[in-house]
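# step 3/5: fold
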Amino acid sequence: MLLVALVGAPAARAQQRACQGRIFDATTKEPLVGATVRTPDGAAGTATDASGQFSLATNAAELVVTAVGYQPQTVAAGPGPLRVALAPAVQDLQTVVVTASREAQLRTDAPVAISKLTPTVIQDTKPTLLVELINKVPGVVMLNYGNEQHAMGIRQPFGTSAYFLYLEDGIPLRPMGVFNHNALLETNPLAINSIEVVKGPASSLYGPEAVGGAINVLTKRPTSVPTASVGVQADQFGYRRVQAAGGGMITNKLGAFVSGYAARQRHSWLASSDYDKASLNARVEYALSPRLRLTAAGSVNDYDSQTSSAVDSVAYYRREYSSTSDFTYRKAYALRARLTAEQQWTERQATSLTGYFRDNSLGQNPSYGIRWNPTPSATNDPSKARGEVNVSRFKSYGLIAQHSVRWQWLDSRLLAGTSLDYSPTRYDAHQIDLAAQLRAGGRSVERYTITADRPDLPIADYTTDLVSSAGYAQLDVHPLRRLQLTLGGRFDRLSFAYQNRLDQSRGTKAYQQATPKIGLTYDLGRGRGLYANYSQGFSPPGLTSIFRKRPGTGVTAGGVSVPADFYYNLEPARFYNREVGGWASLLSGKVYVDVALYQMDGRNELLSIRQPDNSTDYQSAGKTLHRGVEYGLTWKPTATLFFRAGGTNAVHRFEQFVLSTNANDAVQNVNGKDMPQAPRWVANAELTYKPRWLPGLRTAVEYQRIGPWYQDQVERVRYDDRTLFGARGVSLLNARAGYSWRETVEVFVNVLNVTDELYANAATRGNARTDRTTYTPGAPRTVSAGVQYNFIGKK
């Protein structure tokens, strides 16, 4: 028997062969890292590397391929290289996310409210604008202000506040203190692989401004097989777009992917809304060794747009989408580049080092900057107004270093990192004089025209050398097999030397804050679990709110002069968040529900107070309350039907906020009142049908709901117009259809606002009784169509 064994063993080994191949996503064609390849009996197995490649010595006739978030597949172990495309599991609790902890982890291990828009969702939506995607996330409102300009609301009233952090591959789009609510227009939708949205403070990992939430745009990687695509898209309102993308593995170690588009809009439904945009993204990955990978990525976005003004009630309800100004504009240029090295020391230790660069400029003559007062007086002529021209520029040089280690002790993991960002900035703004052509009655303006450019009347003129530094750490431990405890914290410091040319002042200023987090996750088994967390958020005031003149600054009124540096004393905002939630898989995995309840208390929240002439005064509020419940449901009753729904019911309230200390003012404070632009209910639902009788066809119907909201801070006026189904606020229906022929030719049609409802994306007014509402109208029925040709290689 021993002799037979000795003789037969080499023969058995000789029968084994080296099976090699690549595992990739069937939708995106991107490599799947860590996919498992094993024999049916489990006797042998391996995992794919960073390029999605594997090699396994076996004599088995079949191999089983699995990956978290994908449908398993059994393939024949052929003699040649294998190409295995795994289809995403539409209904899977174990979604992999990276934003919750800066590293890939299961969604069910993260004690936060986080949602992921998968490549399948992005592919099926075929969005023209990011707003069409972001609004699918439960608890999130992204409003279209026209030409890719937008507002955001995540656990905050929707609007232009700086309490949201926008990231691309985990790197903020802008440095701390230079927030812009339109920053997502400086991205390329065609380069997006997936989008992750963290709701609630994420400051313990990502720092200031990640208060209401963080949106992380994850870009496409080089594909495992050669791919190329070219397409066009258009609508009936003059929007045209041409796009192209392509990539693949140049060698077994080197891969690249490039995508870009050029868009143009002319003569749209909204007056003075022409725009042009060009975007290009490129990414190159190189495996120096099986454990060391380099990634070089860059993007450039060039945007030039007219900016139509908001309209008054007369024009809005007549559907006269006119603009009071034809000279306002926004021009944005954003270049970003990064180089990342990722070293996998062992199966339990990894290090990443990223260096990045930004070059950004934003020039505008904003319509919201026009100041007009309808009240005649000795010092005010209603036939005159004023506007402004401003330019903001910055360059950034940054570094992020991070190390993670896992221990068998309590199945624990420690992640720690540090970051440094140096961003010299320059901002200047000056006045322009305007003539106001009044409508009959003299209570509203029909058109403004420029009468003089006034660089001699500066509004702001400063330079700063921004330096932001941080250290952060997060520890995950399992004191019990099903219980995970997460402890995290971060310390941030923002300092800058400044020169303010308005008052010829120089100096330095600094803000610093520690933000802790503690979370618990408990696995109840059978696809069910609970979580709880406590976290803090922190946000210093933006530079423009610090250095711009307050309305009335420098003017002597009643013998009292308001100093030009009044804003220097604005306090950082702090938020304290408590949250509990859970998830459950029901009906044999056909139904998945998740729920989160939260309360976030704000202190010194920076709020804008609209003045009668449309100017803005900034004040740090004493106390605010943000409390709500977020919920999501997905249901797959059959292989051809998929339903999802999500929403939030929330209260955003002033707890303690003094509007005026003047005894003659009718309203002294707004304690206990709802904040403006804070609807109590927001919801989004969609039903998708992909029939078996015609593979490649998809149809979907989507419903968007935003409840009524107060327009002012004193609760005098609400926006509660009736729309679809008689619902007050905003109630819209969208429809989408597309057909893909053998993944080669794709055609699609999207119809937004199917019933052509009249609705507003924003309706705001000041607090005075004489103030009038201004509306940012939503788009009428819009039909967008496109066609795309795809090439998928066999290599």
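# step 4/5: annotate
The two ends are 47 Å apart (CA to CA).
# step 5/5: archive (pending)
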